[in-house]
Amino acid sequence: MTYLVGKDLPEKPAGxxxxxxxxxxxxxxxxxxxxxxxxxxxKDTGFEALYLSGAAMTASMGxxxxxxxxxxEVCFFIRQIVRSAGLPLLVDGDTGYGETLxxxxxxxxxxxxxxxxxHIEDQVLPKKCGHLNDKKLASPQExxxxxxxxxxxxxDMMIIARTDAAGSEGMEGAVARARLYHQAxxxxxxxxxxxxxxxxxxxxxxxxxxxxxxxxxxFGRTPYFTATQFEQMGYKMVIWPVSSLRAANKAQENLxxxxxxxxxTYEMLGQMQTREELYKTLRYYDYEALDSSIVxxxxxxxxxxxx
Length: 307
Fold this sequence. Notes:
Layout: H1 14-23, E1 28-31, H2 36-45, E2 50-52, H3 54-60, H4 71-85, E3 89-92, H5 100-113, E4 117-121, H6 140-153, E5 158-163, H7 166-183, E6 188-191, H8 197-206, E7 213-215, H9 227-233, E8 237-240, H10 243-262, H11 275-282, H12 284-298
Helix pairs in contact: 2-4, 4-5, 5-6, 6-7
């Protein structure tokens, strides 16, 4: 049905639903959804939870991933994805939008918008994509304080701590940070930009009792692995953060080139979502039926004697 009908909304808090999915056997697959339409398409394909990438959000706004956007702007994306698909959503919280009080505000805002989980990273501003060079890191103690603040502010939301230390501090530094963040209250750890199967396995072997998240971004430092391969390495979650945006953007580029070259869109019709497919994805007819049923229910009957 639609999110407008209260009886169709999930009864359990989003964070609780995310934890229940994570507690099941196997790896939790979290495809990136950069807007509500993508979220619906992922849901219709059978995915049970989603990921919202900071890089995908900023790119969809025509901005680089440098910590430019605000908490309120992220909440706009959270609301549209949660409202459209109703699935538990893990959100990229970047560096937390400031220090401890700012992070507590971010956690409350994200949770009120409908997020099920958030990850924060140990970079300092201006932050960079995790797969770029020359990232600057906060001290382990500063990041642990941020994690503790996030945990204190949340109600049901899962808090995931990301460390970008593998590239500059090696495996020892990354593992030491991960342990500290977990001790500070992080529910799971996200080791960013690991560059080999051996690194993924070693990291998991040294944190055997901690749920771990793997990032399968394209065109980065991490080789291409499947969800099954990550599970075999010891990971409980995997994200494909910007994949939906990359595919959509390439399709749009081809569309614009075709219009410029041919003066029309005819050559692209076979690659387009049809009107019927769009309406089906949007649950258009459910909304239409809901509107008609409400009008039919509340419209008063006025007879001649009523005038």
